[in-house]
Give the backbone structure.
Amino acid sequence: MEPTARVRLRVSPGARKTEIAGRYGDAWKVRVAAPAEGGRANDAVLKLLAERLGLPRRALSIVSGRSGRDKVVQMAGIDPQETERRLDS
């Protein structure tokens, strides 16, 4: 069975630059330059995570918080420990 992981995010859309800014409680703080309208910030978040984790974009999906700042993203093909290690680097 393929490993999966979920990660909690706190997203700030409309930021000056797109980056993973570090820990935010039990979540990760993510800033994206894209605005929150039309799902553009969500797309930017998934693109950033896919690049950082070395996963194809299609392996990631938002399972909670699609229209809010607090999101849960599920990733296929990576386990939770490896997810944390790659986000921390």
